[in-house]
């Protein structure tokens, strides 16, 4: 994403919109679809834009009582990293990356791949429930 002086004044949702539009390919469409599923799974989700630095324009982050997941885009993959993924049940085996760590888990989506919408929304719901129980 190209940096501009107005980036600081934009809301995170506007920055995510701009990132999706800028991608203008399968990655933007995939990120947009994932974003829709996240919002459907948890209408109270908070969109954030974090980790802006000279070499990175920033990363979309979805939170609810703590981080749920990030939506990073690379040349050949859209990577959804769940902050507490190792603690989540994944009966549909959506996690396919970062499986060796003790904390995070990720879902790598490549061009043409589809995600199980219901299973993904259930994973979001479980991550929200985990954060809520930790917040108490």
Describe the protein's topology.
Blueprint: H1 12-23, H2 26-41, E1 46-50, E2 59-63, E3 67-73, E4 78-82, E5 105-109, H3 117-135
Antiparallel strand pairs: 1-2, 2-3, 3-4, 4-5
Helix pairs in contact: 1-2, 2-3
Detailed description of the structure:
- It is a single chain.
- This protein is α+β, with helices and mostly antiparallel strands and 136 residues long.
- It is 35% helix and 20% strand.
- It has 3 helices and 5 strands.
- It has helices at 12-23, 26-41, 117-135; strands at residues 46-50, 59-63, 67-73, 78-82, 105-109.
- A 5-stranded antiparallel β-sheet has the order 1-2-3-4-5.
- A hairpin with an 8-residue loop joins strand 1 and strand 2 (59-63).
- Helix 1 (12-23) runs antiparallel to helix 2 and helix 2 (26-41) packs across helix 3 (117-135).
- The chain is globular.
- The mean pLDDT is 92.
Please describe the structure with a list of short key phrases separated by commas or semicolons.
136 residues; alpha+beta; 3 helices; 5 strands; 35% helix; 20% strand
Please give a quick description of this structure.
With 136 residues, the chain is an alpha+beta fold. 35% of the residues lie in helices and 20% in strands. A 5-stranded antiparallel sheet has the order 1-2-3-4-5.
What is the spatial order of strands in the main beta sheet?
1-2-3-4-5
Largest sheet: 5 strands, antiparallel
> From N to C, what is the helix and strand string?
HHEEEEEH
Please identify the structural class as seen in this structure: alpha+beta
How does the overall form come out from the CA principal axes?
globular
Which residues sit in consecutive blocks of at least 5 with pLDDT less than 50? none
User: How far apart are the termini?
Assistant: 37 Å
């Amino acid at each position: 994403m190209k940096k501009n002086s107005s980036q600081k004044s934009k809301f995170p949702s506007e920055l995510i919109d701009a990132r999706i539009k800028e991608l203008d390919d399968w990655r933007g469409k995939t990120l947009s679809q994932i974003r829709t599923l996240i919002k459907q799974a948890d209408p109270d989700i908070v969109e954030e834009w974090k980790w802006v630095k000279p070499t990175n324009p920033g990363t979309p982050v979805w939170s609810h009582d703590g981080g749920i997941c990030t939506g990073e885009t690379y040349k050949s993959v859209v990577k959804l990293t769940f902050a507490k993924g190792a603690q989540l049940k994944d009966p549909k085996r959506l996690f396919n990356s970062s499986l060796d760590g003790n904390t995070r888990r990720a879902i790598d989506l490549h061009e043409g791949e589809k995600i199980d919408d219901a299973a993904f929304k259930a994973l979001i719901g479980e991550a929200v429930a985990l954060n809520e129980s930790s917040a108490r």
